[in-house]
Design a protein that fits this description.
Two copies of one chain form a homodimer. Chain A has 16 helices and 16 strands. In chain A, the strands form four sheets. Chain A has an eight-stranded parallel beta sheet. A three-stranded antiparallel beta sheet of chain A has the order 1-2-3. In chain A, strands 7-8-9 form a three-stranded antiparallel beta sheet. In chain A, β1 and β2 form a beta hairpin. The longest helix of chain A has 27 residues. Chains A and B meet through α14 and α15 of A and α14 and α15 of B.
């Protein structure tokens, strides 16, 4: 595969180019095997800060930290790659500060891969005042009202300053539901922005990073098809699916992915943004997705919502007051190995910081363990059995 | 040394007594060496859950957790013994619940020694409504206003239910300043309570625990002398100094300890409650104290106040925004080994949980490292050099 950097740099002497490519390896993706009865793929993605096994789930480290966990704890949970939010880091402490302190990796003390989003989604979901034009978006910080501009070019400058392995094109974010006309207009704006991102990123010569394009188009199959075709013609080393998990029914999300998948390049990683429940992960892996991120395991943890193989438990419930069992008896995480539901309930009721810490460790472990099972089932070409198992449980609970 | 349990139990058959003493070892304290020019002592205290090296600092785990840290993190910081607050645990989740879940050790997943206080200090400092009589204290919970009674007998029942290695007699807590008359009255009440605690504790036959008496008497040397004499006549395996660090000048606190020390049994551990700064620890070790506890390292950590060998830094200050140095360049803690002041400032400003976690790790490490240095200097019989070093630094800063 040609690297993003290689495609972009025709002006550099070949020897310099060669040296850069050797010292700053760009992305490489290989499919190790595919499942026999589903579209699931078992892959390996080489990035500047390490190699990750796919399908992969990326815990979210919004403000340069997965809330409550040290880098050592993330390591011990076998976290392969984190997602951090450019929007938050642009506001605080600012990308220039992060860049001076060794980029986001050096700043937060995390040596494995990181993906940064473009900031677009946060601008659309967090800010009160914003104005979107074809040029970009002007918004006021949700922290102190300061006015910022975010254009495709600025999104690239920002993410190159942060210096993470994978960076994302700026896209226009669409609410659900939206009409076909609105979705079409928004998607075409996103595609124009994607092209400008590509151009700017190539100018920046950042060989250790890879830029992904984002498919938009709401729930409309024709728009999704137009979007992926446009992105392929621009050319990216990886393709994300954006604009889902924004309120539409789950079945609709699965359908969009299912219809889009045959049009996505088979040899490039596919990333479904902001998804989802453990069941969503399995359903979407079966539809050909390789990468996921979601705040659900970490945010739910802080709210005392804990995942188990038999559904979830809400730890504040009185029934756990003297329950000496672990969260999930089948779980091998350090929290389940040591602490009772009763203790975790006590920490939650007492508003203790350790409540968030331990709950987050468990939920992140649960998600990563789910991904590990997914990878194993694909390796054995029996992923359909895992899908069937999950659907059976879902049915029992509904 | 006779164990508290051995002294107490005359009604039991000797064989049962023997078995209990074998399976549930009570306390043993030995002085390994003393300093040449100060009253500092290097000791070793054997408790049911392990042996601790003294002088020792006990981090505070108020509600069955050192705020933000997992038991594994406490282990890796070489925490030898924790202090937990009976008052908080009585209110939430209740001592009966803790007892059912394996006692405080099992409940919180901590396998090394724990000391519980009696709850007296919290009743006097946290509750809005309370009524003290010779019998005990009636108070309303600071959480929900529920009325509770705490008597010497109840304080023993409570702490025996929690099941920790060292438990404390209930004492009447005196504000500073107080007149000699008030202090005398309060001290004598505390001594009467101490005797009732001793009787009740002996009835409870809890051989794995040791009960310490608490010297009171405010800043008055004659009352302190009367108090320790009374406690010695009741007989305890260890003696605490209470009622200090409540607002009096530091020099006055040092004087009280210095005047009291010759009257305290030399072969028993001495515990100065609620003290203090790193300088206080060194000053009071030089006056013969073996054990300390204080919320300062942990509470200050959460407020962004970080200890260094050259004083403290307030991490929110703008000067640290792009400071890539660790908190303390001489510190070997895991935070200083990995994270910059700039990152720690960012976490603090962003209100991140990890701010509390990392700051707490550093401050607890700093305190325990100070204790380690204290023990080494005593072993070399050169503790006066450490005292001189600290006084020189104090002088430079003032």
């Amino acid at each position: 595969m040609l690297s993003a950097g290689f495609m972009a740099n025709t002006a550099r002497p070949w020897c310099l180019e060669f040296r850069l490519r050797l010292t700053q390896p760009s992305m490489n993706f290989e499919i190790l095997n595919t499942d026999s009865k589903t579209r699931a793929r078992r892959g390996r993605l080489q990035l500047s800060h390490g190699t990750i096994e796919t399908p992969v789930f990326m815990p979210v480290g919004t403000q340069a930290t997965v809330k409550g966990l040290t880098p050592e704890q993330l390591h011990s949970l076998s976290v392969q790659i984190l997602l951090c939010n450019s929007y938050h880091l642009m506001l605080r402490p600012g990308e220039a500060t992060v860049s001076k302190l060794g980029g986001l990796h050096g700043f937060m003390g995390w040596d494995r891969p990181i993906l940064t989003d473009s900031g677009g989604y946060q601008v659309f979901s967090l800010t009160k005042f914003r104005k979107v034009t074809d040029d970009g978006v002007r918004f006021q910080s949700h922290l102190d009202g300061t006015t910022y501009d975010l254009s495709p070019e600025k999104a690239m400058d920002l993410q190159v300053a942060l210096g993470c392995d994978i960076i994302m094109a700026l896209d226009d974010c669409l609410p659900y539901p939206s009409t076909h006309e609105t979705a079409a207009q928004s998607m075409r704006r996103s595609m124009a922005w994607a092209e400008r991102c590509r151009i700017r990123f190539d100018q920046l010569d950042s060989h250790s990073q890879s830029l992904f394009g984002i498919v938009q188009g709401g729930i409309y199959a024709d728009l999704r098809k137009e979007s992926i075709d446009r992105l392929i013609s621009i050319g990216f080393p990886g393709y994300a699916v954006g604009g889902l998990a924004v309120g539409e029914p789950n079945a609709m999300m699965y359908d969009v992915v299912e219809e889009l998948e045959p049009h996505m390049p088979a040899d490039k990683p596919r990333y479904l943004m902001g998804v989802g429940t453990p069941e969503d992960l399995i359903e979407c892996v079966s539809r050909g997705i390789d990468m996921f991120d979601c705040v659900m395991p970490t945010r739910h943890a802080r709210n005392g919502w804990l995942f188990t193989r038999d559904g979830h438990i809400v730890i504040k419930n009185a029934q756990y007051k003297e329950d000496d069992r672990p969260i999930d008896e089948a779980c091998r995480c350090p929290v389940c190995g040591k602490h009772s539901r009763a203790y975790l309930r006590h920490l939650f009721m007492a508003g203790e910081i350790l409540s968030s810490v331990l709950n987050t460790i468990h939920n992140v472990y649960f998600y990563l363990d789910t991904m590990q099972r997914i990878r194993q089932f694909i390796e054995f070409r029996r992923f359909d059995e895992l899908v069937a198992e999950v659907r059976k449980k879902e049915l029992r609970r509904s």
